[in-house]
Backbone:
């Protein structure tokens, strides 16, 4: 038996993953345990979970693999700061303590935190991404494309893979980066870097790409192979002071939007412009990957691979017959890729058999909780509840949803990656006009324009969307079928009042139809998500619609819930109507008034 622990940490979205004899045993982000959004800290809780799930002690690990080479990353940082001296002195003084405190030697931190005394290896950052993309895929050979902000020196890479082997054959290097360019526009539009990029993607459909020529002429030159050259006069990230220089203000007609302030037409148009540029770059990169690899299959990872609009265009317009995207495409997935790289590429351990979809098992790789554990939690905290049995487990929540109620759904093992896929989800009725605005403003407490994803029975996807391929990880955007659309009075955007735009009905499933008639699709498969599949089937029987609104079980600024007590806290802080806890059914009106103040938080029994 060979057991490998993969670790990513110290930047954002720290995570751990454990692979045993080629099989993925467990994987989870640290944020789910620490309750710190995008937690960059050492993932001690995630590591302990992985060991517990595998039934192993720390001394039974054969190897720990870190997802990048810290010395090379430190070299990049040092050279970048020196090239910008003396203005970068403050960034240097701020950053050095963290490097000396652990970033340069993750192995030492591993020994200190969990008592691990075994060997530690380091995988290249983009090799970790590439491994996470290829090894769990359903393919036996593939081109591999990884695109992100930066890892060591690489910002994008092209590889080819067959059997157990991956070879990286082309890379784009820092400071020229599609991910950093997208993040710079994210920052200028008033959203947080490394977490707000998906907001910009959602905003893009409300705008026109009127700044596209400016981006092409002033910010970045896009080459035929998909690589790009940034005009560094407009950026300040090399010195570590800010993403952008003051010249952005002149280029885009005024200062950056202040966070939480009103979103104007300028931000919508900026979002549309950088989105189109990103799609063009990804299409060119994919064409180059196809030329270099000769494969009909493409695997994607890296933070930019979470851009599901670009992924949808790649699927429809790209040169590949088949595309597979790692559901934890960002840095968290690097932990899994590092462990798989060691097992398959270094030790030549065979990849497990494909189940017809892929080798991720639906990405349900996190903790689950037994009936006894949930019952003990409810009893210890005097939580009123009922227990559903048999068909009630699907029929009761399905009827509540059909009645227009919002349900928190907690079932089985937690998802690995940023998307909730029916294990830790908030669900609603997609047919209702008010579902999107209600769930955004009263339950998620987030911006009204943010779109929701449809979860659809896999065999029904073509009934609702112009999509034929599986999309189990909510990473592909496709158009809603024409016959389901409701024609707008005009194709022109009527104003920059986003709430007015959001509330316009666009199809017979309005809550999951974006302004441009697109939807970010999750196909639900009985093989990987039986509880969620049964619920969708029951909802279809009750309503004739095999689609549900599926959004992550959290409120804005907090990670997705992990435990029953996390779920209950979120349930009580929002206007959700019901909570389903793996068969236990909680009605909001039956609960004691614990929301009048925060005192109940301290009294809550967490064990």
Residues:
């Amino acid at each position: 038996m060979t057991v490998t622990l993969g670790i990513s940490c110290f930047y954002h979205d720290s995570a751990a993953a454990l692979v045993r004899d080629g099989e993925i045993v467990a994987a989870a982000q640290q944020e789910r345990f620490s309750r710190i959004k995008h937690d960059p800290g050492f993932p001690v809780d995630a590591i302990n979970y992985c060991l517990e799930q595998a039934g192993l002690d720390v001394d039974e690990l054969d190897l720990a693999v870190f997802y990048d080479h810290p010395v090379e990353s430190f070299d990049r940082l040092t050279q970048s700061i020196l090239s910008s001296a003396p203005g970068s002195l403050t960034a240097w003084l701020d950053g050095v303590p963290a490097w000396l405190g652990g970033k340069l030697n993750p192995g030492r931190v591993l020994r200190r935190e969990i008592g691990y005394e075994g060997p530690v290896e380091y995988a290249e950052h983009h090799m970790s991404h590439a491994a996470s993309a290829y090894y769990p895929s359903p393919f036996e050979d593939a081109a591999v494309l990884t695109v992100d902000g930066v890892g060591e020196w690489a910002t994008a890479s092209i590889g080819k893979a067959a059997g157990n082997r991956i070879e990286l054959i082309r890379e784009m290097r820092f400071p020229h980066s599609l991910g950093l360019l997208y993040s710079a526009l994210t920052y200028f539009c008033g959203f947080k870097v490394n977490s707000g990029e998906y907001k910009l993607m959602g905003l893009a459909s409300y705008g026109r790409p009127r700044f596209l020529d400016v981006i092409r002429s002033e910010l970045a030159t896009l080459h035929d192979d998909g690589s790009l050259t940034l005009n560094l006069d407009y950026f300040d990230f090399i010195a570590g002071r800010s993403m952008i220089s003051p010249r952005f203000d002149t280029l885009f007609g005024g200062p950056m939007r202040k966070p939480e302030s009103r979103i104007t037409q300028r931000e919508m148009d900026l979002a549309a412009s950088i989105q189109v540029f990103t799609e063009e770059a990804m299409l060119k990169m994919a064409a180059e990957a196809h030329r270099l690899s000769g494969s009909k299959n493409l695997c994607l990872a890296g933070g930019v691979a979470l851009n599901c609009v670009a992924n949808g265009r790649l699927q429809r317009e790209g040169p590949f017959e088949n595309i597979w995207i790692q559901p934890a495409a960002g840095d968290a997935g690097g932990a899994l890729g590092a462990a798989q790289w060691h097992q398959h590429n270094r030790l030549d351990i065979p990849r497990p058999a494909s189940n017809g979809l892929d080798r991720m098992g639906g990405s349900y790789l996190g903790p689950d909780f037994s009936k006894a554990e949930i019952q003990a939690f409810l009893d210890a905290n005097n939580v009123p509840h009922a227990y559903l049995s048999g068909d009630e487990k699907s029929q009761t929540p399905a009827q509540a949803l059909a009645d227009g109620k919002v349900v928190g759904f907690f079932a089985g093992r937690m998802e690995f990656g940023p998307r909730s896929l029916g294990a830790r989800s908030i669900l609603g009725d997609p047919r209702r006009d008010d579902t999107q605005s209600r769930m955004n403003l009263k339950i998620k407490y987030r911006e009204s324009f943010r779109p929701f994803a449809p979860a659809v029975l896999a065999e029904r996807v073509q009934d609702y969307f112009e999509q034929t391929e599986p999309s189990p990880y909510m990473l592909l955007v496709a158009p809603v079928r024409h016959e389901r659309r409701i024609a707008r009075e005009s194709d022109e955007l009527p104003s920059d009042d986003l709430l007015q735009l959001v509330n316009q009905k666009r199809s017979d499933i309005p809550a999951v139809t974006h302004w441009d008639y697109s939807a970010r699709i999750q196909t639900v498969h009985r093989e990987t998500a039986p509880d969620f599949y049964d619920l969708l089937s029951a909802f279809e029987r009750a309503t004739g619609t095999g689609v549900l609104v599926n959004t992550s079980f959290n409120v804005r600024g907090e990670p997705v819930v992990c435990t029953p007590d996390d779920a209950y806290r979120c349930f009580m802080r929002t206007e959700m109507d019901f909570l389903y806890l793996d068969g236990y059914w909680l009605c909001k009106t039956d609960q004691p008034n614990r929301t009048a103040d925060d005192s109940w938080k301290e009294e809550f029994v967490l064990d």
